[in-house]
Amino acid sequence: MADKKEIVMSGIRPTGFLHLGNYFGAIRNYVKMQEDFECYFMVADWHSLTTHPDTKELQGNVQRVLAENIACGLDPDKVALYCQSHVHTTAELYLYLNMLAYKGELEKTVTFKDKVRQHPENVNAGLLTYPVLQTADIILHRAKYVPVGKDQEQHLEMARNFANRFNHRYGEVFPEPVAYNYNAELVKVPSLDGGGKMSKSENQMATLYLSDDDDMIRKKVMKAKTDNGPTEPNAAKPEYIENIFGLMKLVCAQDVIAKYENDYNSCNIRYGDLKKQLGEDMAKFIGPIRDKINTILPDKKYLQQVMEQGAEKANKSANETMKLVREAMGLKYY
Ligand code: ADP
């Protein structure tokens, strides 16, 4: 009999349309991993509540994220594709882990500090304990690998700390989860405006969504920040130019990239041509995914079936872990 497969877990918040960063940072790895690992991928609907979204939009957003993941190649028959709120034991494990997480370390989290700066009027306890809930999501399946983008590195370190703390206090139940990318390095897909990462909620004109139409893709790429070109041969690239070459590496052919590298190094680069080429290649890459999203999304019955099937698989794995957790903690009285 084959060895038991290693376990993988990751999630995406239903806070808007998925974009190129979600694809290359996370979903591309999900699709590869589904062949060789036991995979749990969830729509993180509870996580999205920390920022108080209009919950009337939740249903549509959850269905969209599911459809977008499937359109990217995720197969609901091969993995558990489910909704966080359909696995109630997540909340139980979150409660236990909260007793092992300290206010000081949570306050030091970079994403928490960013959120406090952006929304000083909404510094709620859920926001502070976000990394604890994320740890519960992961270790609930005793997952070892977590395919995520570079922005999640610190959260994963915290997940390792919380899992280790549990093991030391109550006995070995959890493996140490590690961030995972097939290309060894974690990926950060930059925003088209020259700074920061592409993100669902920030600067929509600088973010390439998987559901953008071809003209919108071309338009956004043409607006990407450039300058008059280098003034001396083999000059170092400013960050916003480096970012554009980074985007080319995701979708353009090797010889196309080599041509523009040479043009840059010999001070002959024409950014208008480069962006036109990049816009075409992006449209070619995103087009088939967008078309699939548009065929899956209207099929609500299918999406319900996917969610039910996913919840069943996720709950089975979660219940097995929680039995071990309660026993290890001594929460077993007869
Ligand atoms: P967002 O930041 O767009 O709201 P999420 O927080 O839901 O996205 O993250 C979902 C996954 O996508 C995570 O694994 C995250 O690391 C990855 N991700 C998000 N943006 C990027 C990006 N620009 N580059 C690489 N990975 C990203």
Structural account:
This protein has 334 residues and is mostly helical. It folds into 2 domains: 7-187 and 299-329, HUPs (Rossmann fold), CATH 3.40.50.620; 204-293, Orthogonal Bundle (Tyrosyl-Transfer RNA Synthetase), CATH 1.10.240. Helices cover 53% and strands 7% of the residues. The chain has 14 helices and 5 strands. The strands form 2 sheets. Strands 1-2-3 form a 3-stranded parallel sheet, sandwiched between helices. Helix 1 (20-33) links the parallel strand 1 and strand 2 (38-43). The model has no long low-confidence stretch (mean pLDDT 95). The site of adenosine-5'-diphosphate (ADP) has 19 residues, from helix 1.
What small ligands are held by the chains? adenosine-5'-diphosphate
Computed CA radius of gyration, to the nearest angstrom: 22 Å
Q: What is the highest CATH level, the class of the largest domain?
A: Alpha Beta
Oligomer: single chain
Mean pLDDT across every amino acid position: 95
Task: Give the low-pLDDT segments.
Answer: none
Per DSSP, the total helix count is: 14
Global geometry: globular
Strand content: 5-15%
What is the β-strand count? 5
**Broad structural category:** mainly alpha
Task: Write down the secondary-structure element order.
Answer: EHEHHEHHHHHEHEHHHHH
Helix share, percent: 40-55%
Named at the architecture level, the CATH assignment of the largest domain is 3-Layer(aba) Sandwich
CATH topology of the largest domain: Rossmann fold
Ends apart, CA distance between termini: 36 Å
CATH H-level superfamily title of the largest domain? HUPs
Major sheet strand order: 1-2-3
What profile does the largest beta sheet have?
3 strands, parallel
How many distinct domains?
Answer: 2
